[in-house]
Specification:
8 helices; 152 residues; mainly alpha; 0% strand; single chain
Length: 152
C-alpha cells in the first residue's frame, strides 16, 4: 500500500490545530515585523499539530509569509536553495504543488464606453427609487464634456 507523505493543502488544512482557533488567536502566526518573542505561543501549537510536516513543506515550497509548521519565515529562508528547489520539484511531481492565482489574470481592460454605460445603469438604479421630479438631467455642457472624454 502506497501512503502519500504530503497532500494538497485543502486535504490537510482542516486537520490543522491553527484552523480551529479564533481569528484573534490565529494572528499570533502572523506577527508584526521585528524581533520575535523568545518562546512564542504558536510553537507549542505547531509542535502538537498532526499536520505539522505537511504545513512546513507547503510553506517552504510556496514561500509563505508568517509562521508555518513550527518555523518562521526567517528559518525557512535560511534553508539551502538547492533543498527548496528539490522539494518544489518533488511537490510538482507528486501533485501537491499549487499555483497561486494571479489577481491580475482576470483583469480585462474596459473601454470608456463600457464604463459610462455601467455608470449610467448604476445611476438609473439609484434614481429609480426616487421621485421622477428629482431625476437630474445633463446640461448641454455636461453632455459635451462626456462626448469630449469619449463617453457615449
Amino acid at each position: 500500500m502506497d501512503i502519500a507523505l504530503q497532500r494538497r493543502r485543502r486535504e490537510w488544512e482542516q486537520e490543522a490545530i491553527c484552523c480551529k482557533l479564533s481569528p484573534q488567536e490565529r494572528e499570533t502566526f502572523f506577527p508584526p515585523r521585528g524581533r520575535p518573542p523568545k518562546d512564542p505561543h504558536w510553537k507549542q501549537i505547531c509542535f502538537n499539530c498532526p499536520v505539522r510536516l505537511e504545513c512546513l513543506n507547503y510553506a517552504i515550497v510556496h514561500d509563505e509569509d508568517g509562521n508555518w509548521g513550527g518555523s518562521t519565515e526567517r528559518e525557512r529562508r535560511a534553508l539551502p536553495r538547492s533543498f527548496v528547489r528539490e522539494l518544489t520539484e518533488i511537490a510538482k511531481a507528486a501533485g501537491w504543488y499549487e499555483v497561486h492565482p494571479d489577481p491580475l489574470d482576470d483583469y480585462k481592460p474596459r473601454s470608456n464606453r463600457q464604463d459610462f454605460a455601467d455608470l449610467m445603469e448604476w445611476e438609473q438604479g439609484l434614481l429609480s427609487a426616487e421621485e421622477d421630479s428629482l431625476v437630474p438631467r445633463l446640461t448641454d455642457a455636461q453632455q459635451r464634456s462626456f462626448d469630449l472624454l469619449g463617453f457615449y
